Amino acid sequence: MKIAVIGTGYVGLVTGTCFAETGNRVTCVDIDERKIAKLKGGTVTIYEPGLEKLFERNVKEGRLLFTTQLEEGIADAEIIFLALPTPPGEDGSADLSYVLGVAHKLGTIMKKGDYKVIVDKSTVPVGTADKVIAGILKGSNNALVPGEDFDVVSNPEFLREGVAVEDFMKPDRVVIGTDSAKARSVMGELYAPFVRSGNPVIYMDEKSAELTKYAANAFLATKITFMNEIARMCELLGADVDMVRKGVGSDERIGKRFLFPGIGYGGSCFPKDVQALAKSAAEVNYDFRILKSVMEVNEAQKTYIIPKIKDYFNNDLTGKHFAIWGLAFKPNTDDIREAPALYIIKELLAAGATVTAFDPEAMPNVKALLGDSIKFAESQYETLADADALIIATEWNEFRTPDFTKISASLKRRTIFDGRNLFDTDLMNKLGYYYFSIGRKTVQ
Ligand code: NAD
């Protein structure tokens, strides 16, 4: 099939590459000229495990192309994916200007009799498919006829950054929202190679598909937040959240995954999607109370370790120096959008402290954002020189079993504030550390 993917970010580039991998010819379109120039030059613009190999193979085979020109990109495409940003607007609702701007432009370009399926892959509020149809119609001065010249399908994306390629190639499920039999058949054919092992393609109406994505993300954000609150209770009552997590997670109705407490959820999706769903609820006069609590608790959780650090240093961080391991909002990505590490750094700097950080992939993005306000190290151990304490903000695998002899030798004092519960508390006790983690006994 011939496919166009509009928006070549985390979702668009993975989507385009993976569709090319199953033999389709994909043209990725982006307005960012530097990004397209890099991609054309053979450089993958995001860090995502496994992506580079697929990217190189498909570029070499001539199945994966790049352009900044929408018209050129969609010229012979049968399916057009919109993988555009939907950031929070000022009032928290999803900003649809990127999606609807492109929809309007598509209307000006698409031709009568050249049927195309337009697919919303961006996370968008209920009713957006109708707005995309209206945008295309307006762009075409009502020359195009929905159902005849085009259909708009909602096909939300559930990939996780860090395992995006695996998630895309073997999705738990594919959700396709459309009432059009023609569009349904095109989408079914496109996704068939991805669900060979029997995972379902779930067909539904557009609105249900749109809401499914928000419901999934809001539920996951709620699950993490619930465990963060249980972790607080553990600290107050002297229980151990690791034990509670295991005890709770072995109930199949609850499940083992997504129960790890920490310094809050971040990333480009959960914060904005929870906010957007709460806003959508308000628009239909529904008070979605759980979501309000989730947002409130998570906001506090991102900087939860700051008062702990201040307490430890007698409320004076002036001139104190901190090593930070991990900047990305989660491991295996270079994405720093809404990363808890950034909130922690901001608070530390405001309190007069200095910071040296290390992250295996996210340092260039943080450098671009924070400039010289913090230092960056070449390795996790290099951060420790002259540091008063180590703070762990992202659970990269390489931080899990570090060389404690090196850590002890470099740190000014054996002090670790661990926002991701990486180390065994008994071991930390044995090694003589002050060790604060989330929902567990503080070792001192
Ligand atoms: P992103 O910011 O990484 O990428 C968006 C891309 O669109 C950018 O490269 C930008 O330059 C480009 N763009 C903007 N306007 C354009 C235009 N007019 N024409 C062509 N390109 C344009 O965003 P993302 O993380 O890939 O997310 C895209 C959508 O997918 C969002 O709605 C998001 O909520 C959703 N989503 C994201 C993830 C994720 O893990 N990142 C997962 C599922 C769903």
TrEMBL record:
An example molecular function term from Gene Ontology annotations: UDP-glucose 6-dehydrogenase activity
EC number: 1.1.1.22
Residues noted as binding NAD(+) in the record, renumbered to the chain: 30, 35, 86, 123, 161, 272, 337
SMART domains reported in the protein's UniProt record: UDPG_MGDP_dh_C
Pathway(s) the chain acts in: Nucleotide-sugar biosynthesis; UDP-alpha-D-glucuronate biosynthesis; UDP-alpha-D-glucuronate from UDP-alpha-D-glucose: step 1/1
Domain UDP-glucose/GDP-mannose dehydrogenase C-terminal: 323-425
Entries under Gene3D superfamilies matching the protein: Cytochrome c1, transmembrane anchor, C-terminal (1.20.5.100), NAD(P)-binding Rossmann-like Domain (3.40.50.720)
Entry annotation: catalytic residues: 269
Catalytic activity line of the entry: UDP-alpha-D-glucose + 2 NAD(+) + H2O = UDP-alpha-D-glucuronate + 2 NADH + 3 H(+)
Alphabetical GO biological process terms: polysaccharide biosynthetic process; UDP-glucuronate biosynthetic process
InterPro entries reported in the protein's UniProt record: 6-PGluconate_DH-like_C_sf (IPR008927), NAD(P)-bd_dom_sf (IPR036291), UDP-Glc/GDP-Man (IPR017476), UDP-Glc/GDP-Man_DH_C (IPR014027), UDP-Glc/GDP-Man_DH_C_sf (IPR036220), UDP-Glc/GDP-Man_DH_dimer (IPR014026), UDP-Glc/GDP-Man_DH_N (IPR001732), UDPglc_DH_bac (IPR028357)
Domain of life: Bacteria
Oxidoreductase among keywords: yes
Record-listed substrate binding positions: 158-161, 213, 258-262, 266, 330
Keywords from the named record: NAD, Oxidoreductase
Enzyme class: oxidoreductase
Family: Belongs to the UDP-glucose/GDP-mannose dehydrogenase family.
NCBIfam families linked to this entry: NDP-sugDHase (TIGR03026)
The protein's name: UDP-glucose 6-dehydrogenase
